[in-house]
Design goal:
Four copies of one chain form a homotetramer. The first copy, chain A, contains five helices and two strands, in the order αααββαα. In chain A, helix 1 crosses helix 3 and helix 2 crosses helix 3. The longest helix of chain A has 24 residues. Chain A is elongated, with a radius of gyration of 17 Å. Chains B and D meet through loops of B and loops of D. Chain B binds a DNA duplex (15 and 15 nucleotides) through helix 3.
DNA sequence: GTGGTCTAGACCACG
DNA sequence: GTGGTCTAGACCACC
């Protein structure tokens, strides 16, 4: 479910956060589903438990999951998050597109890319 | 010409690199133009000369500028870099779009954004 | 493992890069082997940690190693690099041989040298 | 006769020295030929006269030319230099070949290169 | 004046 | 503990 890429320059805890976020946002993890325990996931990925703990804490802080003492961590049901996340992603996209424009990439080239992405079937 | 944003999470030297790259790629800095000297730019931006030095070194390594001891740093004339850089940027865009798709952003929303960006007049 | 020659005109960081490159290219350092930490190597060689850091950064940039924050630097497994490096070295050799020819060194003299080098047993 | 390559990382004075050395060693400049004057060459190459002066001084020091006050600089006739220079170049070649061997280049590959170089007709 | 290397020491983020 | 960035200041080579 979670894969760590050590060649990825982002810190491990961030990779884990991102992975759970997309799993939750696209519905693969339904509300109230229990996440793997901190310790079991740490062993499975052979990384430090503190790293998992940090990822879960931040996921809780940003509202993606809730934690119950002695029981575990669970996916939160909060529709507003979906919108908030979409807004954030679109904002990043805007900056990226601005940059594309600055270095001389044409609108045509970009729309072609967009079409290409959305024509692929989901894996 | 160069602005440092201390709120930006990226390191200073990287901000400088990116700024010069776009200035070179969009033609604002023509081939063989001399860049500000390491020390003068350091003073102008009130940062350490080593930080500028590092930015210039990496710009030279990646082929955007060439440096001559005792004379200064100059914009390199290398057309192939433009294409290489465009390809790289489009590749990043592709990953970004893939992510947008994963969290449920529609193609329509994106094309609207693209149009919006390209309708603005250049400043 | 690493020796610094202060009589060598090349900068220290470059000597370190070259040394690790050959160690990786000839297989003495296998993929995913951990390199000495920045600080420990600095102490061992009695040089500044920044100098090691620079060497490691450039080794990472050129694909010989990968670095993970909080964990260390490791040898990357990338076969294509071996070929790329061989091509680069042979290219330099070609220029060198061209120069030999220009100043009147004969083919016979060179082939004798080549044989001499390759007859020695590996140490 | 002399071309300066600003993309070459070597200092300008060294490029000039090397160029005159090969011209002298391969006989293009015969003994007692007068070299261009410091000032005229400086203007021709649009570089600082001090740089030319330095090149000529070093050429004189190493015995390739001699200078006559008020008259100019002339090619020296000294056969022993040829041998000395050949020895030096062959020594550099030996180190280079050693390096080739270390990174796994075979003797066969090298002899092919050598043949290739010497088969070309002089330009 | 220019670029380039190195040192010493600080601070931050990550695990 | 690990890597990464930045500063301040020194010294060298080149033009």
């Amino acid at each position: 479910m979670i894969i760590i890429d050590y060649n990825d320059k982002r810190p491990i805890y961030e990779q884990i956060i991102d992975r759970f976020q997309t799993l939750i946002l696209n519905g693969a993890l339904e509300p109230d589903t229990q996440l793997p325990s901190v310790r079991s996931l740490a062993i499975e990925l052979s990384i430090n438990a503190n790293t998992i703990q940090r990822a879960y804490s931040e996921l809780e802080r940003s509202g993606f999951i809730y934690s119950v003492k002695g029981r575990g961590n669970f996916v939160r049901a909060d529709e507003s998050l979906v919108e908030k996340q979409k807004a954030k992603t679109l904002n990043e996209l805007q900056e990226h597109l601005q940059h594309c424009k600055e270095i001389g990439i044409t609108q045509k080239e970009i729309t072609e890319y967009v079409s290409k992405i959305f024509m692929e079937v989901d894996k």
